[in-house]
Amino acid sequence: MNEKQIIKSAMKARGINQEQLAHEVGYKTQSSISSRLCGNSMRVDTFVKLLSAMGYAVVVKSTIQNDDGEEWTISQEEGDGENG
């Protein structure tokens, strides 16, 4: 699953459309969301911003079996990101 599929799945799970998501993140139009979902790739800060607006967190954790299990949560900082 890629970043755009994750965003679309989160939108479906939360029952929100592109217009509602655009409003939640402070973008001016629904097309701001559409262009991000149709582009070649999505910036990490945009990915985090969209997921955060829907109540999700991005967690980074090791896939190495003998690792110490450390993980980090990426949060959306106020004032960061794109202004659509």
Molecular structure report:
It is a single chain. The longest helix is centred in the N-terminal third of the chain and has 12 residues, at 3-14. The chain has 84 residues and is mainly α. A two-stranded antiparallel ribbon has the order 1-2. Residues 79-84 have low confidence and may be disordered. The two termini are 25 Å apart. Helix 2 (18-25) packs across helix 3. The chain has one domain (3-74): 434 Repressor (Amino-terminal Domain), CATH 1.10.260. It is built from four helices and two strands, in the order ααααββ. The radius of gyration is 14 Å and the shape is elongated.
Mind summarizing the main beta sheet? 2 strands, antiparallel
- The gross shape turns out to be elongated
Q: Tell me how many strands there are.
A: 2
Order of helices and strands: HHHHEE
Distance linking N and C termini: 25 Å
